[in-house]
Each structure stands twice: as structure tokens, then as C-alpha cells.
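Help! Submission page says 'invalid entity' but I think these are all valid:
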Amino acid sequence: MRRYDHIEVGDELPSLVSKPISRTTLALFAGASGDHNPMHIDIDFVKKAGMDDVFAHGMLSVAYLGRLLTGWVKQSAIKSIDVQFTSITQLYAEITCSGVVKRKFEQGNEKLIEVSLSAVDQNDDTKIIGQAVIKLD
Amino acid sequence: MLDKSDIGKVFPKTTAEVEKGRLRFFAKAIGESSPIYTDELSAKAVGYSSLPIPPTFLFSLKMDVPNPFKNYQDIGAPLEKILHANQSFIYHQPVVAGDIVTFESSVVDIFDKKGGELEFLIEETRVINQLGVHVADLKTTLVLRN
């Protein structure tokens, strides 16, 4: 178990790298996530909307960021996650999820840390930035 | 086009049941390999009464209705023009397989940038379980590309 006293500002979470996002990845995520938006799975629909190809669900990379966190602390320690989508994630992207401890603070009787989050593709193009607040003992 | 008079609009409540099979499918789709999310005994061994939902799955449960985009379409945000700009989750209590969760969503803000070229819609959602416990809050910002 991770303890508040052992965490330092600047500590990095072990990064998580996704497999390349394929059409299969998007089909499975559409079904499993319930987001059936055809912009992610139907190239005919996408072309009619004026784009070249389907693109990944933003929430797929947020789910990868969730894995980054739950691989590091137990899920019940996560108080909040807040993300901003900065650009569309293209097909075949390999997403690297990173987290850095930005702040340690106490609120009420809780010991909390704020972790900055990022999801970046293989071209170093940032897809998501955000932060999570985690409660530690 | 969005209409600022829709600020404050309350969308119809929706309800979703958390199903084990769906959670296993979601774990597969996101590459989650921890057995806590797929094997009930492993989940129970760490204190859950059944499979826990992964942190972002509340967003999926919210979409678990015949047409999750209808609310947005009804207020002038068609599917092919909207992009997800921000998403936040605030967690109060765990949600596990077998739970039935209710989503109470409302429009909290509408504004535009670049002279109306981009319009923003902010929706907040309160999530309640079958016991009436407030389990989470979601906030979604959509951008409409005009």
C-alpha cells in the first residue's frame, strides 16, 4: 500500500503504453462502453460528415488513464478524475499514459495527493491532460 | 445551434443496471487485466461485494439508454458536430455489479467562442444507487463545431 508520508511531489507513476488502437479496438470499445457513435466505427458515416476516417473514442484513452491509476493505488483511494481532451486520437495511435504527483495536501482529516495526468501518442502529440485526486493513509 | 435558454434544463432521469458480463467485456476492451475487474472471488478478496466498475465506466452506464445522444440532439447539438471537450468524475461510494444506478442530468452552462464558431455545453450529472446513496458526480463538456 502507498503511504502519504512516502510520496514526494515530483514522483512519477509507472507509465502505461497501449497497444496500437485498431478498428477492432474501437469496435470492442463501442460495444463495451455503450458509445455507439458511428464517428468511431463507421467509415461511410464519417466520410459523409467530411472526415477521412474514423477516430478513437476519447473515453478509451481516459479508460487507459484509469488503468494507470488503478495499477498504482486501489480504486477506492481515487476521489476524482478530471480530464480535458486536447486533440482527436487517430486510428493506430499508441497511447502512453503518464502521471506525476503535483501536490500533497490535507483537507479535513484526509491526506490527499493531486496527480497530473497525460495521454500522448507515438508522435508526442498530447491527446488528454488532466488531474486526479487520491486519498492515502 | 444551442440556445442559452436551455441553461438549467433538466434531462429525463435514466437508470442502468451494472452487469457482470458487461464489466468483463469492458475490461477486455480497455486491456484491463487485474482479476478484480473480471473475477468475483478476486473482487470479494479485496472487499467488494461483487465486481467493481472501473473508474470511467459510469460514463458508459450513463449512455446505457436507447439513444444516449438524443438529449443533445433535442437542444440543437447533432452527433456529427459534437466533440467531447472535458470530463470529470467525483467518486463518493463504490459501484459494483448488481447495483442499479440512476443518472440525474441537467444543463448547467452554454456559451460560445470565436463568434459562435464553437459552442460549449456543460452538463452535470448526479449518480444515485438503488439505496438512494449519492455515489458519484459527473461533469461533461461538449463542444459543437459550427
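Support: the input was valid. A stray whitespace character was the problem, and the output above is from the cleaned input. Chain A has one domain: 4-136.
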